[in-house]
């Protein structure tokens, strides 16, 4: 073999061996159990409603199995919740733009029905402003609405998680919130929410 080729190959191998791993994602270990627990915490903490008027209280969750929300590039720094680590925001921003499906083994403490946005739009319309919502509530009595959740963004140290959630329960009843969760000695806790959309 030509000595020039041999030297080039040795040099290339040394460079490749010294190259660092690309940045991104949590440096601390985050498991599938963490992800499942974060989603369960969001459901229990944000989407269980007490009885009010004719509503008897939340008896079940109805969740879209597909990840929801594509982060808007137009969001300004002023739109972001205060006190959230920048790396957690960046992780959520990147993760929320990918498709996929939520973990199917969630156990949030109440019965859970998977119901996609496509299935919702196949429900019969009732006419008027309420459109498909009467059919939805007839099919899922006791639900707090149709819930859609994003992928999770993680801080590099694995102690902060961000999830965007959207819930609709009527033509003029919907809310979109970014939830901030922290890992504690007792597990994941919802620390704050930041509302981005409400009807």
How are the SSEs ordered, and which strands pair?
Layout: H1 3-18, H2 32-46, E1 60-63, H3 86-95, E2 112-114, H4 117-120, H5 133-139, E3 143-149, E4 153-154, E5 160-170, E6 173-184, E7 187-198
Parallel strand pairs: 1-2, 1-3
Antiparallel strand pairs: 3-5, 4-5, 5-6, 6-7
Task: Describe the fold and architecture.
With 199 residues, the protein is of the alpha/beta class. It contains five helices and seven strands, in the order ααβαβααβββββ. Strands 1, 2, 3, 4, 5, 6 and 7 form a seven-stranded mixed β-sheet that branches. Strand 6 and strand 7 form a beta hairpin. Mean pLDDT is 82; it is low at 1-24.
Summarize this, please?
This protein is of the alpha/beta class and 199 residues long. Helix content is 26%, strand content 26%. The protein starts with a helix and ends with a strand.
Q: How many strands in all?
A: 7
**SSE pattern, N- to C-terminal:** HHEHEHHEEEEE
Mean pLDDT over the residues: 82
Question: Treating each run of at least 4 consecutive H or I residues as one helix, how many helices?
Answer: 5
Approximately what portion of the residues adopt beta-strand conformation?
25-35%
In the residues, how many domains can be counted?
A: 1
Ends: how far apart? 73 Å
Low-confidence stretches: 1-24
Helix and strand content put the structural class at alpha/beta
Shape: globular
**Main pleated-sheet profile:** 7 strands, mixed
Q: Helix fraction?
A: 25-40%
Whole-angstrom Rg:
22 Å
């Amino acid at each position: 073999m030509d000595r020039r080729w041999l030297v080039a190959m040795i040099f290339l191998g040394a460079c490749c061996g010294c190259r660092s791993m690309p940045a991104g994602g949590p440096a601390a270990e985050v498991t599938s159990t963490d992800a499942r627990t974060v989603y369960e915490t969001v459901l229990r903490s944000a989407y269980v409603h007490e009885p009010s008027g004719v509503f008897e209280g939340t008896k079940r969750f109805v969740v879209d199995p597909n990840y929801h929300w594509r982060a808007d590039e137009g969001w300004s720094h002023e739109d972001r919740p205060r006190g959230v680590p920048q790396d957690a925001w960046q992780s959520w921003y990147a993760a929320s733009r990918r498709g996929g499906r939520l973990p199917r083994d969630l156990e949030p403490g109440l019965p859970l029905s998977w119901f996609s946005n496509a299935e919702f739009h196949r429900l019969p319309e009732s006419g008027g402003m309420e459109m498909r919502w009467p059919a939805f509530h007839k099919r899922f009595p006791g639900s707090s609405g149709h819930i859609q959740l994003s992928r999770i963004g993680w801080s590099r140290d694995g102690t902060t998680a961000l999830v965007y959630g959207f819930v609709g329960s009527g033509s003029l009843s919907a809310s979109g919130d970014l939830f901030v969760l922290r890992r504690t000695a007792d597990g994941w806790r919802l620390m704050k929410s930041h509302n981005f959309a409400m009807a």
